[in-house]
Amino acid sequence: MTVAEERTTTASEAEPPAEPSRFSLSHPKSRMAWIRPSMWLPLVVMLAVLAVLWQYGARRLPYLLPALPDIGRSLTANLGYYVDNALVTLGEATAGLGMGFGAAFVLAVLTSELPLVRRAVMPIAVVLNVTPLVAIAPALVVAFGFGPLPKLIITGLICFFPILINTAAGLRSVPQQVLQVYRSMDASRIELLWHLRIPNALPFLFAALRIVFPLSIIGAVVAEMSASGSTRGLGTAISVASSMNQLPVVYASIFVLAVMGVTLLLAVTLVERRALHWHDSTLD
Amino acid sequence: MGRAYGFGPSTTVALDDVDLTVQPGRFVSLIGPSGCGKSTLLRLVAGLEQPDRGDVRVHGVTPAKACAAKMIGLVPQSPALLPWMSVLRNVTLPQKINRGAAKRRERIAGFAERGTAPDAPDMRELLVKAGLGEAIHKLPAQLSGGMRQRVAIVRAFGLRPDVLVMDEPFSALDEFTRESLQDQLLALWDELKTTVLFVTHSVSEAVRLSDTVVVMAPKPGRIVETIEVDLPRPRGEQLFGERRFHEYEDLIRDRLRRAWHSDVA
């Protein structure tokens, strides 16, 4: 991407935008840059090398690695199966993320506004964060059964901490002189929160979302694998297929999970560019 | 209408036995070496700090009450703009904040003497006057440092404050930008006639802008001398060539040097 970025910065310096154009910055130009072979060729060559190595390994160790064509055939033949299970996992991941997000955001506001809440909540949040969720998952399944609830809780928990920490940091990082200007107008705490702190926390929030979207998939898959009685979701598909030694299904599911993760990350990036068009991280 | 500021010593003795009264509508600069408490004095007036002893009054009320009535306009060292808002939204945001201030302002004694209530100024017009007409819809990141500081000044003037409190607002700018901003500040001030408290460490800036220059000294922070600058206005660029301008500069430099040496000795 460096070549593309260099290009766009020099271009925008040469002709400053006449009016505020939020999307003119680097966007279409960097997309055009992908036409040039120097942008995509290294990746393609790397993928080709990896594919050859994979095929060689699959030939030598057929019980450990499925051949790539087998994975592809499994994907195309049972596309409906994969899509169904992917949607289940995706639903658990996003719903759990939503719950974790809501709780973390509210708590971030409370902890940054009220030191009392911060002292009460933060130590617990830290303990929760350092406890491996894989260890909690089976207990939650015992408590809440094989339905969606323990999956949502686990996904929510795994997303909770990064959002809490980042948002709280963003809320507190309004520059002192900005706060002084608005305090000299006797702005209320609500006004400071709404007009200064929350917008200021947005870049931090998006940084957290970039971390948390992949984590949410991990949470959902771990929860599915822990609940051995559950019937749907890619995590279930993987554990069932591996117990029956259906390696192509295992790897096809993994592939679908990876695609899902990349898609989510891409979505976050697109939303971020729109919401943070003013921020340094999107300006260059 | 007078304002009296009196302070007592604090543990660090940022300010000791400071007594200063500023007449409404005057442009007063505070100058002195670092550590002389000029910024502390400013922060006390803006209600950002509390005096340990003594009393600060703005139009007869405490700084806290003055803030609640939005009588104070603050221009800090950095522009302190919100990077996600256009210039126009940055300067109009104060109107959305503390909406009850207008009523509180009416109730403060001496209000009638100062004329009718300041109606919400047309911020666009003010921006155009400050030479920011082209920049109204731009983001702060798209502006130069001088333009950003101008936006900050317009934001403060937009409150129609009774006291404009400026803490070294031009110190981060290059000399040419600084002089053109001084011109614009004087033009705006001439029109809106508000009291200005201006902290600076530039002698020529203080002389050029002020009616009164307050020379301060450190350890403990105190006022050494108050010098009235009796130069005609408007003070354009031709002022820099005048002998009396340099006489005032020399006088203030001399007082600063003396304050410095008395401190060292």
Overview of the structural elements:
The complex is a heterodimer of chains A (284) and B (265). Helices cover 81% and strands 0% of the residues of chain A. Chain A has 13 helices and no strands. Chain A has helices spanning 2-14, 27-33, 37-60, 68-77, 79-113, 115-130, 133-144, 148-172, 176-183, 189-226, 234-243, 247-275, 280-283. The longest helix of chain A is centred in the last third of the chain and has 38 residues, at 189-226. Chain B has 265 residues and is an alpha/beta fold. Chain B has helices spanning 38-45, 63-68, 87-96, 101-107, 123-129, 145-157, 175-192, 203-209, 243-264; strands at 4-7, 19-21, 27-31, 54-56, 72-75, 163-167, 195-200, 212-217, 222-228. In chain B, a hairpin with a 4-residue loop joins strand 8 (212-217) and strand 9. In chain B, helix 3 runs parallel beside helix 6, helix 6 packs parallel to helix 7 (175-192) and helix 8 crosses helix 9. The longest helix of chain B has 22 residues, at 243-264. Residues 8-12 of chain B have low confidence and may be disordered. Chains A and B meet through helix 9 and helix 10 of A and helix 2, strand 5, helix 3 and helix 6 of B.
